[in-house]
Structure formats: structure tokens, C-alpha cells
UniProtKB/TrEMBL annotation:
InterPro entries: SecY, SecY/SEC61-alpha, SecY_CS, SecY_dom_sf. The chain crosses the membrane at residues 20-42, 79-96, 116-134, 146-165, 172-193, 205-225, 262-283, 303-325, 361-382. It holds the Pfam family SecY. It is found in: Cell inner membrane; Membrane. SUPFAM superfamilies: Preprotein translocase SecY subunit. The keyword Cytoplasm does not apply. Component of the Sec protein translocase complex. Heterotrimer consisting of SecY, SecE and SecG subunits. The heterotrimers can form oligomers, although 1 heterotrimer is thought to be able to translocate proteins. Interacts with the ribosome. Interacts with SecDF, and other proteins may be involved. Interacts with SecA. It comes from Amoebophilus asiaticus (strain 5a2). GO terms for biological process: intracellular protein transmembrane transport; protein targeting; protein transport by the Sec complex. It is a multi-pass membrane protein. This is Protein translocase subunit SecY. The keyword Transport applies. The gene is secY. The lineage of its organism: Bacteria, Pseudomonadati, Bacteroidota, Cytophagia, Cytophagales. Belongs to the SecY/SEC61-alpha family.
Length: 435
């Protein structure tokens, strides 16, 4: 505890780090305030609790902005959709592959394309959002005027969220967009604890303590899963020095993460799981089969939903790992850098060796990811409240753990840099006399 307090004290004694942390907190407060500013022309007393069922999952990532019909009602969801689309285009379209290989200039071009696509997607999603959440009796002004204003305000709110995320990345502690998603998820945590402890407290304090302990074990498991890597030994060839001597080759490692795809497989699978329920809702009153499909895929606790969800996650984990890690490119980079894997020939044998290891670690990684994804449904079926059960796994927990670990690494790098700067400023090189 004393070491923790000392580290916390050091953080706020570094001016740059203190400024970045305070900037991040201030921008996050602006983002949270925007989640409670209702669209102009709406009666706020008639919109509470609109986001239910599958829409409730989306509301978690937006910190209640979705159900509040706020100016940040779409949040960064259109940006995420645009990012996924551009990532897929860089795999399938040669033009985008060429842009991606242009280095910093290519990344800037792809970023501009993503932002332009975000505006288009935000305008399309705004119309669907208004149709799904706003009832005609809650509109207090002229309906045409309200819809015209909202179709401009909602995309503008998305662009404002993106600007806040960019400022957190540049002026804060990094991971701006991920930080916005995480703060939206965390904002619902106190209410979930209250619902579980107070409203369902009749089951006893001991059961609640057991639930907290189970949640702690799950969080520890997710941290271990997120950090787990398979290290492939890498040997650098011996190099000739300018003085005529020979430097011995360095030995390093290629770290292949057990979960190389992050939360993207769950996001892809969840988008597909939304489609059957959304489509069947339009025909639920006309067909009994469609009504049954709506009930099954609109409820994340049914075994049919969890089975299909798990299969999609495993398939998307392999797909996203394949498009994000190219063994042949790694082998070519190693060859150009005069490095090799001991006992493996350079070129295609190296690529095959890396691909074989990647295939072996992707299977347990995808299975664990599928288990984490369906844990909220299992927790709800075990008797936990719906709000509290969502923190027992799924995208929410993976995003929170990932963002917290990245933020801690950023802070640690600043502390380490300040430590070396302090040594350079305060010490002097031994063996030299002072002038």
C-alpha cells in the first residue's frame, strides 16, 4: 500500500503527466455531460427506459446516452462501424492495400477516409436511431423540424465525440476512443452494484460477497488472457564492427498474443446477432416462426443465442487474426533485418513455422473468448440482476481491462522516462573532473 501511495504521489509531481491526466479527466467530464443533454424538442419525461432488449446492449457502451436521446446518442458507434469497414477494405481491395503500405502518409489518408465514412454512416444510423427510440407523443415541436434538426445534431454529436477522443489521444494519456467507450461502461457500474445489493439484497450479504469474489476471479482471468503471449526466439546475425571486431548477435523474441484479435470478434459476432432480432421484429405480428426467432435472438440468455454467438466468435477470431497478422510479411521483415528463428530456414519455412504456432494458439484463445462472451448470459440465468451480470464478461469486461492495462502502461512509460531524465539532470559521468 505504501508503494502504491508513493507511485501515486510521483505521478502528480511530474508536470507533463499531471497535465495529461487532468486533461483526460476534463474531456471525459465533457463527454459525460453531453450524454444528458437531450435533443431539442423532446419531452425528457417520456423517453426514459426506451432502450431495452438488444438496444440495451448498445446503451451500455454509450453510458445511457442512447436511452436519454441525447446529442451524443450515437456516440462513437458510427466511427467504430467505419473503422471496421475500412479495415475490411484494406484486406479485400488492392487500392486500400496500396495506401496502407505508404507508411505515415497512408495511415493519414485512411484516417481521413474513415472520418468521411463516419459522417455517412452517422446520418444513416441517425434515421434508424430516431425511428427506434423517439415516439411521436414525446415530440413537443413541429415533427418535420425536429427530424431535420436531429439528423444534423446527431452526426455533429458523433464528430464531437471523435474530437474529444482525438484530444485524449494527443493531449491526454492516449486511447481516446477506447477511453470514451470504457467511461460509458464504467458509468453504469455503480447502478449495477446498487441494483444487485439493495434491490436484490433479500438473498443475503454472503451471496453478494460470493458474487464479488467470482467477479474478481473472472477479471484476473481476463487480465491473464489479455497479457498471455507465446514468445518465439529470434536470433540476430553477427555483425562486423567498424574497428574490425565482431559483435555477437542479439537474441530477442517475437511475441504472439494468445488473443491477437482483441474484442473485434465479439463486436463482429454481436452485430450479426442483432440482425435476426431486428429483422424478425418487423414480421413478429405476421408469423409465429418470426415471433419465435425474435424471442430467441432478442434474449441473450437462451441457449440457441449463446451457441450461435460462440460459433461466430470462434470463426471471427480466426478470420480477424488472419487479416491482422501476416506470417509471410513477418518472415520477409526478419530476412531484411538479418534475423532468424534458430533451427528454421529463412523465407517460406519461417512463415510456415509462425503460421503453425499462430494456428495452435488461436484455438484456445478463441474458445476462451467465446466463454468470456457468454458469461453474462450464464450469470443472469444463475440469478444475478441483468445490469450486474453484464460485467461478468463479454465486450464490456474485455474493453475495460484492455483500456486500463494500456493506460497503466502509458503512465508507467512516463514515470520511467522521468526517472531517466532525473538521473541525467542530477548525476554526473564518473571519471570526469568538474570544470
Amino acid at each position: 500500500m505504501r508503494k502504491f501511495l508513493a507511485t501515486f504521489k510521483r505521478i502528480f509531481f511530474i508536470p507533463e503527466l499531471r497535465s495529461r491526466i487532468l486533461t483526460t479527466i476534463g474531456l471525459l467530464l465533457v463527454f459525460r455531460l453531453g450524454a444528458f443533454i437531450v435533443l431539442p424538442g423532446i419531452d425528457a419525461t417520456r423517453i426514459a427506459g426506451k432502450a431495452k432488449g438488444i438496444l440495451g446492449l448498445l446503451d451500455i457502451f454509450l453510458g445511457g446516452a442512447f436511452s436519454n436521446v441525447s446529442i451524443f446518442g450515437l456516440g462513437v458507434v458510427p466511427y467504430i462501424s467505419a473503422s471496421i469497414a475500412v479495415q475490411l477494405l484494406t484486406v479485400a481491395v488492392p487500392y486500400f492495400q496500396k495506401i496502407q503500405r505508404e507508411g505515415q502518409a497512408g495511415r493519414k489518408t485512411l484516417s481521413n477516409i474513415t472520418k468521411a465514412l463516419t459522417i455517412v454512416i452517422a446520418m444513416i444510423q441517425s434515421a434508424s436511431y430516431l425511428a427506434a427510440t423517439v415516439s411521436t407523443d414525446s415530440i413537443m415541436i413541429s415533427k418535420p423540424l425536429f427530424y431535420i434538426l436531429s439528423l444534423f445534431i446527431l452526426p455533429a454529436g458523433t464528430m464531437a465525440c471523435m474530437w474529444i477522443g482525438d484530444r485524449i489521444t494527443d493531449k491526454g494519456i492516449g486511447n481516446g476512443v477506447s477511453m470514451l467507450i470504457m467511461i460509458g461502461i464504467v458509468s453504469s457500474l455503480p447502478g449495477a452494484f446498487f441494483e444487485e445489493f439493495v434491490l436484490r439484497g433479500s438473498r443475503g450479504l454472503l451471496i453478494f460477497i460470493f458474487e464479488i469474489f467470482a467477479l474478481f476471479l473472472i477479471v484476473v482471468s481476463v487480465v491473464m488472457f489479455t497479457q498471455a503471449t507465446r514468445r518465439i526466439p529470434l536470433q540476430y546475425a553477427k555483425q562486423m564492427a567498424t574497428s574490425g571486431g565482431i559483435y555477437s548477435g542479439q537474441r530477442q523474441y517475437i511475441p504472439l498474443k494468445l488473443n491477437s484479435s482483441g474484442v473485434m470478434p465479439i463486436i463482429f459476432a454481436q452485430v450479426l446477432m442483432f440482425l435476426p432480432a431486428l429483422v424478425s421484429n418487423f414480421f413478429a405480428n405476421k408469423s409465429e416462426k418470426m415471433a419465435m426467432v425474435s424471442r430467441i435472438f432478442g434474449d441473450f440468455t437462451t441457449w440457441q443465442y449463446n451457441l450461435v454467438f460462440s460459433i461466430l466468435i470462434i470463426a471471427f477470431t480466426y478470420f480477424y487474426t488472419a487479416i491482422s497478422i501476416n506470417p509471410m510479411q513477418i518472415a520477409d521483415d526478419m530476412k531484411r533485418g538479418s534475423s532468424f528463428i534458430p533451427g528454421i530456414k529463412p523465407g517460406k519455412p519461417t512463415a510456415s513455422f509462425i503460421d503453425d504456432i499462430l494456428s495452435k494458439i488461436t484455438l484456445p484463445g478463441s474458445l476462451f473468448l467465446a466463454i468470456i462472451a457468454i458469461l453474462p448470459g450464464l450469470a443472469y440465468m444463475a440469478g444475478l440482476s441483468k445490469g450486474f451480470s453484464r460485467f461478468f464478461g463479454g465486450t464490456s469486461l474485455l474493453i475495460m481491462v484492455g483500456v486500463v492495462l494500456d493506460s497503466l502502461q502509458q503512465i508507467e512509460s512516463y514515470l520511467l522516462m522521468h526517472h531517466y531524465d532525473h538521473m541525467m539532470d542530477s548525476g554526473r559521468i564518473q571519471g570526469r573532473s568538474q570544470i
